[in-house]
Amino acid sequence: MSTFTGFEAVWAERLGNLRNVVRQHVIAHQLAEHLGTARTALDVGCGQGTQTIQLARRGMAVTGVDPSSDLLAQMTTAAEAAGQPVRAVQGTIDDLDDVIDDEQFDLVCAHGLLMYLPDAAAAIKTLAERLVDGGVLSFTIRNGDALAYRPGIRGEYRAALAAFEGGDRYRNELGVDAAAHSRTQIEQWCVRAGLAITAWYGVRVLTDGVPADTTAGEVDLDACLAAEVEAGRRDPYRAFGSQLHFLATRRPPQ
After folding, report:
1. Which DSSP state fits 176?
2. pTM, full prediction
3. Which one of 46, 89, 142, 186 has the fewest beta carbons within 10 angstroms of its own beta carbon?
4. DSSP 3-state assignment of 135?
């Protein structure tokens, strides 16, 4: 079971804050460069459907899967208002065989999901199995190589010191217990799942230290988003992202 279960309402209350606006914008921008000729997509843990609807706007047939009926209802309402129909399916990553049978897709997304699962490596394998050969898996992780960065830039130095010694577990600002993962782990897990990583990016590099209640209207948003896009794809900045965004292609059997 996901540790996120039960925190959906808290999440929904924060959808308009700067940190979430930045995260959603940067992920969509990064993903757009890798869509190629993809026509079908599966978004696992789609939540309120921000990315699902973005993909539908690009003309893709998109299926969003999430355990929360409330968030799925928000997605359906927003999609209908935007004139972008999507398929909403209630379930978890463990339910895929039951809720979508044996369907495979050109693109599979799992943004903001793996950090809440008990076995992220197994989840990557499950997601990879939903790809057609040559299909793309887009997923994010909490950056385990930089857990001390946020408290450090906030001046919370004791918390930064604790993060250096605290391993891969942490409690996020929603109050949810979660897991962070390293790039090395992800590279190993992708190889085992028959995936080749084609690109990785940092997500929320420059704004991760702002207070959680900061709204998008409190900053020069256009400049902020443009700076985050640049930081997310440039070294050394991308390595300090709160989350890392990976794009990996399913390799055909040898």
Report:
1. -
2. 0.93
3. 89
4. strand
